[in-house]
Design a protein that fits this description.
single chain; Glutaredoxin; 5-stranded mixed β-sheet; globular; Thioredoxin-like_sf
Length: 111
Amino acid sequence: MTKVIELTEENFDDLVINSKLPVLVDFWAAWCGPCRMINPLIDELSIKYDGKLVVGKVNVDEQQKLVAKYGARTVPTVYFVKNGAPQEKFTGSESRDNYIEVIEELIGMKS
């Protein structure tokens, strides 16, 4: 079962900025084909790294202030956040290996 959290303006600071764990933030839209393509990967990562990584989604149609604040003009845009600050950003589709490489670096599984 997926561990993906729905992120909103109301919970973003608590769940992302103040998180003790690194966070993957997926800016997505229901009408976005590439977003639907990476959705199974996002779900898989949320399960694989449960307890080591927070995985959340921001619906760009519903959370315009977050879109503006983070400049997520293209979907999908995925930010990797650690200690409240973006560390890496993917725009469009990226390979599973690229996701894993960034995540494992963020959570300290890679030197």
